[in-house]
């Protein structure tokens, strides 16, 4: 069923471990906000992940991509367990989805949240978004190992940047910056990586020049990493290649206090294909089944999904309700409290219903 203005069809993959605890929490929160804001979400659950792999030898159904392509968006919990290698999880589910649906933007919003203490003493006003190029760049399959076992043994890994690929991610980042505070930082290393990075700089600069009101600053990745720790509140939007964006995303999400808070989106901005929304954390086997997982990263990812589906006011209401719950001290153990996943969602749903 395709998307009509006020009815959205969403594929849900709870996955493994705490995925199956935080996903129902996010679904409940979205249903509450949808009821208040006059739209409905039709959820279709797909039981894919490690159990599916153990039973069928694949992370998802044979026609999984085809099934997913019929939905407006995909909400994912976490896939992976300690006994299954990471590359099975990645290549069996996440990478095929990312490629098939041309999800070339990986979005990682990072902000300070009320009632939550991060590792930095004075950083209380972080509000930035990392836009990571998600399908090309350093993570290519071109290269190999040569002269194995000989003194001249070597390994070569090629990075591939295309004009179209850099321009579209830079264009997305520039539009996002113009809707926010107008600041765009581009991560580079053109002093050391002399072919691909000057090309990245050139295409980013050309693309951003077409966006009035956006101030572009290009910063070497090493200096940028240091600045993110020392002055994170200075950043608005950061655009980075696949590898640099991967590293900066983890650094930035660590600044806010718990990995349980961090959200992400894998976007096909043109909406030609469904986009995927998932928390940054994994299946967390050490706390799975205890009902104490922090659902904020998953709920925030669902809010990114609502925004992508055009439900901007509902998305904001959801985030406001999360802030209200945190500010009221409803904190899961990872944030130093003793609230359960259920307590947190109840607080969010109560706020949403009360402000209706
Ligand atoms: P995976 O391989 O699935 O990524 P992982 O063990 O590498 O799993 P996470 O699952 O993200 O990584 O867990 C890292 C640590 O953070 C664990 O100690 C886990 O309990 C904790 N953690 C992760 N997510 C949450 C959450 N939502 N709430 C509370 N703690 C969490
Ligand atoms: Mg992990």
TrEMBL record:
Gene3D superfamilies: Isopropylmalate Dehydrogenase. Residues 9-348 form the Isopropylmalate dehydrogenase-like domain. NCBIfam families: TTC (TIGR02089). The keyword Protein biosynthesis does not apply. Its cofactor is Mg(2+); Mn(2+). It catalyses: (R)-malate + NAD(+) = pyruvate + CO2 + NADH. This is D-malate dehydrogenase (decarboxylating). The lineage of its organism: Bacteria, Bacillati, Actinomycetota, Actinomycetes, Kitasatosporales. Keywords: Manganese, Metal-binding, NAD, Oxidoreductase.
């Amino acid at each position: 069923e395709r998307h009509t203005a006020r009815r959205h069809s969403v594929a849900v993959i709870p996955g493994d471990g705490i995925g199956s605890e935080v996903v129902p929490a996010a679904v409940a929160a979205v249903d509450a906000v949808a009821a208040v804001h006059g739209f409905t979400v039709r959820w279709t659950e797909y039981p894919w992940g490690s159990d599916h792999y153990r039973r069928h030898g694949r992370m998802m159904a044979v026609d999984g991509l085809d099934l997913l392509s019929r939905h407006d968006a995909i909400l994912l919990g976490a896939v992976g367990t300690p006994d299954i290698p990471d590359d099975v999880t990645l290549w069996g589910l996440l990478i095929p989805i990312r490629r098939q649906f041309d999800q070339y933007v990986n979005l990682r919003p990072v902000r300070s949240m009320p009632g939550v203490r991060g590792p930095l003493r004075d950083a209380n006003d972080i509000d930035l978004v990392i836009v990571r190029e998600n399908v090309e760049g350093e993570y290519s399959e071109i290269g190999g190992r040569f002269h194995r076992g000989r003194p001249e043994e070597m390994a070569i890994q090629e990075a591939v940047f295309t004009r179209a690929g850099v321009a579209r991610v830079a264009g997305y980042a520039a539009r996002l910056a113009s809707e926010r505070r107008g600041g765009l930082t581009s991560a580079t290393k053109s002093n050391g990586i002399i072919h691909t990075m000057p090309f990245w700089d050139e295409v980013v600069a050309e693309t951003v020049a077409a966006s009035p009101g956006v101030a572009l600053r290009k910063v070497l990745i090493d200096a940028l990493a240091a600045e993110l720790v020392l002055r994170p509140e200075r950043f608005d939007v950061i655009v980075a290649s696949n590898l640099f964006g991967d590293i900066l995303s983890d650094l930035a999400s660590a600044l806010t206090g718990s990995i349980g808070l961090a959200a992400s989106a894998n976007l096909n901005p043109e909406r030609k294909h469904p986009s995927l929304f998932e928390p940054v954390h994994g299946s967390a086997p050490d706390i799975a089944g205890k009902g104490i997982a922090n659902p904020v990263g998953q709920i925030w990812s669902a809010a990114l999904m609502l925004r992508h589906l055009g439900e901007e006011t509902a998305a904001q209401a959801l985030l406001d309700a999360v802030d209200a719950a945190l500010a009221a001290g409803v904190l899961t153990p990872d944030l130093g409290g003793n609230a359960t996943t259920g307590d947190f969602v109840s607080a969010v749903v109560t706020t949403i219903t009360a402000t209706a």
